[in-house]
Write a sequence for this structure.
């Protein structure tokens, strides 16, 4: 089956107590750079166009913490078990009705996953049925005998495993059934116990797992945070039709916007604003109108691509402001649903998305109802 036709889900394991991180909240609910760790982890996957669904596995005692951390994001959750394997199995069971083709299992306290690594992992798992990201062992390695070194180990044969780890959903569930009651340190260990071959892809040194108390004390004094504003502008002609797409919402009216894609000027302007903030050109470079594959495409795909690029550059979108300029249709009745739709695309609370509408008092092409224009501005933060 082509990758584009496969459904891919993510199980994020966040039910642990994180005792090695010291006293305080479970580490997945602690703040990192002003944001709960679990929220950063979820956002990393929400911005990836190949991911169709997430299931976050939490401890029953953490419901209030989870609700607060994830506010404004549309993500499902279930309750975990007494150990990692039980929690992963609970997440897989919660996805049973969706029956995805592939599933990625990821640590909730590993929030720095990049879109590029997700791509590598999905490609490998699609080809082989199971894949994990690994890093080489670069230090001299020995077995130990008490407080003395014993046998040297050839480090060329050693790798360090990371998450997410990707598997064919049915194969991973079968592996759990074959090893019922056993606890494994990760799903690759379970897969090997079940006789599955597991492919390796390059991991990412930045994809660290927050584990110890000192991991939550970054040297922010020497890592300045940049606050960057990006702007975008777009125009599309109006023609006779049955409705226009604006802000990801189809508004019934006797017009339609004319363009190669769905011609959603608001989302096009938003895409350009994001690309501008991260220095990635404009929408035409990424989605050329000369390419037939973008004919009639939903503009939400363009926004998702821009968000994914921002995340890959350690940039975080924190606010969006849009102005729609038109005589028709009326924006007011649809403003709230537009804000919700855009907030979902950007993984932001609705309060961080603003939409304004205005007319040109009958002047110009918008005043003559010949077209619609949109301005967008986004605010992005990035650590240098």
């Amino acid at each position: 089956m082509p990758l584009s036709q496969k459904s891919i889900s993510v199980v994020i394991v966040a039910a642990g107590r994180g005792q090695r991180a010291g006293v305080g909240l479970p580490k997945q609910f602690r703040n990192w750079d002003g944001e709960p760790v679990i929220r950063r982890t979820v956002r990393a996957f929400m911005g990836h166009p190949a991911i169709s669904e997430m299931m976050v596995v939490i401890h029953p005692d953490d419901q209030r913490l989870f609700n607060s951390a994830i506010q404004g994001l549309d993500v499902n959750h279930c309750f975990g078990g007494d150990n990692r394997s039980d929690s992963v199995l609970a997440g897989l069971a919660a996805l049973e009705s969706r029956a995805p083709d592939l599933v990625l299992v990821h640590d909730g306290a590993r929030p720095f996953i990049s879109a590029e690594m997700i791509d590598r992992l999905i490609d490998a798992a699609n080809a082989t049925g199971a894949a994990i990201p690994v890093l080489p062992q670069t230090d001299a390695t020995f077995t130990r005998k008490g407080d003395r070194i014993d046998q040297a180990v050839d480090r060329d044969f050693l790798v360090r495993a990371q998450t997410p780890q990707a598997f064919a959903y049915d194969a991973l569930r079968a592996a759990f059934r074959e090893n019922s009651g056993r606890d494994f340190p990760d799903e690759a260990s379970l897969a090997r116990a079940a006789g599955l071959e597991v492919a390796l892809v390059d991991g990412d040194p930045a994809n660290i797992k927050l584990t110890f108390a000192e991991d939550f004390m970054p040297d922010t004094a020497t890592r300045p945070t940049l606050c960057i504003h990006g702007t975008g502008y777009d125009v599309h002609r109006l023609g006779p039709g049955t409705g226009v797409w604006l802000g990801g919402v189809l508004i019934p009216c006797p017009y339609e916007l004319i363009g190669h894609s769905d011609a959603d000027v608001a989302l096009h302007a938003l895409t350009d604003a994001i690309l501008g903030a991260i220095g990635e050109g404009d929408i035409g470079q990424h989605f050329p109108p000369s390419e037939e594959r973008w004919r009639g495409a939903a503009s939400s795909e363009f926004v998702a691509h821009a968000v994914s690029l921002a995340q890959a550059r350690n940039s975080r979108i924190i606010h969006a402001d849009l102005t729609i300029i038109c005589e028709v249709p009326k924006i007011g009745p649809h403003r709230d649903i537009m804000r919700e739709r855009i907030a979902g695309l950007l993984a932001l609370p609705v309060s961080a998305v603003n939409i304004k509408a205005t007319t040109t008092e009958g002047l110009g092409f918008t005043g003559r109802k010949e077209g619609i224009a949109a301005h967008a501005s986004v605010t992005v933060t990035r650590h240098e």
Q: What stands out?
A: The chain is about 25% helix and 30% strand. The radius of gyration is 23 Å.
